[in-house]
Amino acid sequence: QLVESGGGLAQPGGSLRLSCAVSEFPWDYYAVGWFRQAPGKEREGVSCISADGNFFTHPSVKGRFTISYDNAKNTVNLQMNSLKPEDTAVYYCAGYGSAPCSGRIRGSWGQGVQVTVSS
Questions:
Q1: Is pLDDT at 114 greater than 90 in this prediction?
Q2: How far is 10 from 88, CA to CA, in rounded Å?
Q3: Torsion on CA atoms 44, 74, 117, 84, rounded to nearest 10
């Protein structure tokens, strides 16, 4: 099971870091990603990293969010900079098989963490 940590409240323009504890490499999954769901909206893929080194980042966060794998801590991290109010959502970590980085993936999901961007 994947376990998220981090999140919380940030001001617009601020930063937050999310971490997802995963199994040791090689993972039990083809890829691990971060997804988010805002109230009244569908879940969407934010950024994903595959075991063979492929990355996906949603255009709305490109240049602001960075996904990385820390092999010493076995965590997949999402560094979020220049946060905007529209980034407010529940953020989930998930491991999944070969598929696009989409909110519709089937996989193993964490419990989610709240990220709120507000002044």
A1: yes
A2: 10
A3: -60
